[in-house]
Amino acid sequence: MNPASQTIPSLETSGTRAGTPVVLQVLPELVTGGVERGTVDIASAVAAKGWVSLVASAGGPMVKDLERAGVEHITLPLQSKKPWTIHRNAGALTELAFDRKVDIVHARSRAPAWSALIAARRIGAHFVTTYHGAYNAANPIKNLYNSVMARGEKVIAISDFIANQIQQCHRIENNRIVTIHRGVDVDLFDPQKISAERIIQLANAWRLQDGMPVIMLPGRLTRWKGQSVLIDALSHLGRDDVRCLLVGSDQGRNRYRQHLDKLVRDRGLQHIVHIVDNCSDMPAAYMLADVVVSASTDPEAFGRVAVEAQAMGRPVVASDHGGARETVLPWQTGWLVTPNDPKSLAAVIADATALDAGARARMAEVARTNVLKRFTVDQMRAATIDVYQQVLGTA
Predict the structure, then answer these.
(1) Which domains does the chain have, with CATH numbers?
(2) How far is 17 from 52, CA to CA, in rounded Å?
(3) pTM
């Protein structure tokens, strides 16, 4: 039988099929980013619970993380947005889900979600989605394309901001939307576990001088992440005794990298601003920072950087929109600043770098506590497993 072209008899849709639930997560690829990290975290939790955990994607470096957790990865061209490839992927996922008796298909991105929805309906599996971004819905066709992410029995929003976006764009029932904030590994991002050697190694690699405040903006080099806003803010700040690190890969966006380099030169900030590639030891990197900036010009769906920095006890300056309003406690763990406003950002950076040791220590304690209470990976895993049990009828 070829499931891509024939209708497969629907299986039982309430409860599990063979006692042990089988969960298939579907995403474009496993290279880097929040979608990928969340997929690996949940796949590991499913496997640790004794369920069967499967992930389908086009592959990437993070497949190794799945393999270490005992999770099977299936390689399919799910990164493609071409209609004929989506159609072929639907057939391949149908065959996979039927053969492996999948109970839940969990989609995490739009193009593969269309294939996953078709497969889930063909075999009678439960369909769950995670709505990871504030997708552009400039016209009805685009909104229709986005709508697949709101078609799950349960639709997981990664912030209340995204939950509100789902309601505004798709008008689905409130009881189908579940907000589950993304979680940070607080054992990995723990200032008490970072050795001096790790910090010194990075400081030497980045040629940082002792005694100079370090302003850090982590994030891939793309316009909406606001690197240019921070560069302009440093020009307004007018100080030579600070260093700024833009930590992140351009991921092939050479023109934007060149734009940033030119902007730094035009502002005369070559001795202050340093663009470094991806860092393999972000916990140690945060320890080098006196202030961590998230200058996104568009709203962050969640804003992992702001939470990781707080977990490390670092003051945060974030744009006052999107998920940052849920993660940053103003004047307690950091500051919220008018988006795309270099002068306002410069003023807040001046306040942040002027904190004395006592104020920094108090802010660090509140920041770490904020993350431990609300944004841990264990909380995210438990809440997601609970969603799975709800759709299976075993909660």
Answers:
(1) 22-183+377-392 (3.40.50.2000), 191-374 (3.40.50.2000)
(2) 12
(3) 0.89
